[in-house]
């Protein structure tokens, strides 16, 4: 499991189902999906028939730019079903880079990104009996990020190396006790 996958599993960013339903004008055009698009989460149909990536269309998952090739004729229907997330893998990698690959600190950074998105996107909305409170969610996420940073700085997060066989056990002992590499 990569560090990005680990962080993705620990942040509350499960993805949102989205769709695009467009009737073509006959002009070459780029269709923009909400980005970033989750890899392998999308299906594309042209006039109700499944389209093949690399043959019928290309999709830049980071920008959400979808280009049909050849371009669609006037009146053709493009339907795309996909998932998007608040924090992209590139943003998570940037958190890892900024925190010198310390997963706990990068996790805190990713939580801060999600908190910012929640506050901006959800805001505080009340419609009839339904209400959302993005700023309150953001506060909870920021508090969680602060606790993770605090624990990481105290050394509460660590990676334990566990020997899986006799050779690995002997190698760890020689390295740890005598500074020797076997």
Structure description:
The protein has 182 residues and is α+β, with helices and mostly antiparallel strands. The protein has two domains: 69 residues, no CATH class; 68 residues. Helices cover 40% and strands 23% of the residues. It contains five helices and nine strands. The strands form three sheets. It has a four-stranded antiparallel β-sheet, with no helix packed on it. A three-stranded antiparallel β-sheet has the order 2-6-5, with no helix packed on it. The protein has a two-stranded antiparallel ribbon with strand order 8-9. The radius of gyration is 23 Å and the shape is flat. The two termini are 27 Å apart.
H-E string: HEEEEEEEHHEEHH
* Oligomerization category of the chains in this entry: single chain
Largest sheet: 4 strands, antiparallel
Class by helix and strand content?
A: alpha+beta
Low-confidence stretches: none
Number of helices: 5
Instruction: Round the mean pLDDT to the nearest integer and report it.
Output: 83
Count of domains: 2
Approximate helicity band: 25-40%
Compute the gyration radius: what is it? Answer: 23 Å
Question: Given the C-alpha coordinates, what overall shape results?
Answer: flat
Strand content: 15-25%
Enumerate the strands of the largest sheet in spatial order, edge to edge or round the barrel: 1-7-3-4
Report the strand count. Answer: 9
Cα end-to-end separation: 27 Å
């Amino acid at each position: 499991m990569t560090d990005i996958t680990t962080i993705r599993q620990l942040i509350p960013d499960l993805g949102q189902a989205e769709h695009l339903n467009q009737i073509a004008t006959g002009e070459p055009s780029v269709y923009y999906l909400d980005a970033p698009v989750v890899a392998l989460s999308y299906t594309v149909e042209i006039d109700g028939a499944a389209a093949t990536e690399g043959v019928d269309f290309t999709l830049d998952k980071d920008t959400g730019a979808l280009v049909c090739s050849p371009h669609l004729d006037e009146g053709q229907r493009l339907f795309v079903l996909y998932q998007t997330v608040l924090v992209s893998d590139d943003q998570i990698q940037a958190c890892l880079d900024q925190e010198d690959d310390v997963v706990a600190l990068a996790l805190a950074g990713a939580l801060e990104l999600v908190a910012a998105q929640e506050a901006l996107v959800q805001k505080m909305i009340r419609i009839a009996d339904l209400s959302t409170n993005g700023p309150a969610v953001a506060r909870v996420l920021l508090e969680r990020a602060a606790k993770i940073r605090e624990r990481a700085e105290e050394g509460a997060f660590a990676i334990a190396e566990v020997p899986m066989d006799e050779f690995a056990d002997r190698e760890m002992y020689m390295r740890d006790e005598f500074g020797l590499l076997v």
